[in-house]
């Protein structure tokens, strides 16, 4: 049984990134919903059922669709960040709404519930259950993109010799789980505001705040407050094409750019990898970047918004990622 949570279409906020993040209800482009169909599933040897491009969309009938069921042992162990199994009689989640402290609303509008389970709004993934994700339905993350202008020793902005645009840098971490470079983000805690999650995650991942003394934490908090209280750009809100996604659980994020125009705030903060990060460094922004999940697309949008260098090829368009 499929119960419609309302309209089939998505609100525009999730559609503005490009087709490789959302496939939409009415079909999938060739490069859409790609990472959510890759095998083996992260952290396992589980192979997803193969889903061809033309069968991604739920509106395409596929009677023989037979996805693999998988939820990681770490999730089934029942940690505080994870839901119980749908089959547990004491568990009655309120999908498509705020459920106590747990946000079960999607940034992309209402999603459908099928046989008591939420249905991935971007389409089939070849796997049911939750995989590594704790929540049924949307799992909310926050991605802080901290930027500054690349400068020479005299403090002058460095321009790219071909594009003639200033080179922007952002703080990147190397993830311990997969070894890929990424934005230093993470999951939003139940009841936590996005703004607080953005600041907390950056502190934990890029400044190793969890290992600091009380005095160091206070000093860190003061500098972070300067950075995170200034004007910022919301780069993206919504569904993310992520290798952890399943038919019943998926990642959503709010990616926000905080820009240190003079570079003075970040000069007072020492980058130090912490929590889930293996390494942390300033990285020049350009179209050669190979980053985790949809992070390259977020970084490209930041470069466009800040009128910074992105590509040596002036013809590069939005689908060239």
Order of helices and strands: EEHEEEEEEEEEHHEEHEH
What is the overall silhouette?
globular
Helix content: 10-25%
Question: First CA to last CA: what distance?
Answer: 38 Å
* Structural classification: alpha+beta
**Backbone CA Rg:** 20 Å
Low-confidence stretches: 1-31, 316-321
| Major β-sheet annotation | 7 strands, mixed
Strand residues, percent: 15-25%
Give the assembly state of these chains. single chain
Question: What key attributes describe this structure?
Answer:
globular, disordered C terminus, 321 residues, alpha+beta, disordered N terminus, 7-stranded mixed beta sheet
Task: Please write out the topology.
Layout: E1 2-3, E2 68-71, H1 73-76, E3 98-99, E4 102-103, E5 113-114, E6 117-118, E7 127-131, E8 137-149, E9 168-175, E10 181-182, E11 186-187, H2 194-206, H3 214-228, E12 232-239, E13 249-259, H4 264-267, E14 277-284, H5 295-305
Parallel strand pairs: 2-7, 8-13
Antiparallel strand pairs: 1-5, 3-4, 5-6, 8-9, 8-11, 9-10, 9-14, 12-13
Q: How would you sum up this structure, described in words?
A:
It contains five helices and 14 strands. Mean pLDDT is 86; it is low at 1-31 and 316-321. By secondary structure, the chain is of the alpha+beta class. Strands 8, 9, 10, 11, 12, 13 and 14 form a seven-stranded mixed beta sheet that branches. A three-stranded antiparallel beta sheet has the order 1-5-6, with no helix packed on it. It has a two-stranded parallel ribbon with strand order 2-7. A hairpin with a 5-residue loop joins strand 9 and strand 10.
